[in-house]
């Protein structure tokens, strides 16, 4: 399942970056690129909630297979439309929404499966292993997407995603049937209310949600990357892919050297400090872009190489910090939440993890449209540092969270 997810993840990243470049190619608008993420937010939220209920009521293997099939078919249609020159911005938006919703269900279900496959004391190490997979997918996928779009166009990139997504089914087919343990509540209002009541009692889980939303809302500059490759940094689509991959380089390296991280027991404090480090890295990225605004204009063929290297370094640091936070947040979710409730809480968790960057895309895209490209990450990074400190201070119980005695 891990290998299949990693290979499919590379293809998914190809499509994410390619759709961004595709929309920017059709519209030349950073706001239109940001709206890709916003358009998928509502269906992703609904799918995450309902998908979590499905994962707590039915065979999780089957739920994950159905969700993966829908995402696969949407990607096939995306490739077909592109090859036949029938794509429009509305098709790109619509299919991105379907893929986002399907992935929400698939990710929630897959994550709920993990604690059934490995011992509880290895969950932190498994989260670090997933960080390696995520680092590889985001490091390879966007860079390859940038090169493929620049050299061959959009159609081949979508087609390669279709091929890579086939590997996702291998991992799922090899699993046994996995029914939830404990009292099963059928999908519907009663199941949703049951999950909400649990979340009301789960102060530690709520706090990690709030901290992650804060970081992703004010510290997620992904929607700016296509414009940065055209305006401040230069290099075009290739720079867009390199910037996105830089985040994954930090994730990958921090996962490789995560031995001391996974043995740190105080996960609440670890999340707070990692998110503050993330905010500092994003503020540094904004400061580098501010410096670039005073340099001669760049172009696709004449990029500012030194600035690109500096920007990639700041983004790599942000990826490393976010990965440390992710290791602790995933472990807390899997260890502190009962199995019968895990699908619904993972559904909400996926909404937070995937929905936060979409809100962040709206923040960055809108603010950059009315100000300038360097302003959203610079001010956003400082907001993340301050808000993370304030939220953690309001919850002493969260700061005292002990992985040896997990409590939701």
From TrEMBL:
Family matches, as SUPFAM superfamilies: MFS general substrate transporter
CDD domains with a match to the protein in the record: MFS_MefA_like
Keyword field contains Membrane: yes
Keyword Ribonucleoprotein listed: no
Gene3D superfamilies associated with the record: MFS general substrate transporter like domains
InterPro entries documented for this protein: MFS_dom, MFS_trans_sf, TM_effector
Principal place of residence: membrane
Localization in the cell: Cell inner membrane
Residues annotated as transmembrane: 7-24, 30-51, 63-83, 89-108, 128-150, 156-178, 209-232, 238-257, 277-296, 302-324, 345-368, 374-392
Topology class, membrane: Multi-pass membrane protein
Gene Ontology MF annotations: transmembrane transporter activity
Entry-linked PANTHER family: ENTEROBACTIN EXPORTER ENTS, INTEGRAL MEMBRANE EFFLUX PROTEIN-RELATED
UniProt protein name: Major facilitator superfamily MFS_1
Source species: Microbacterium esteraromaticum
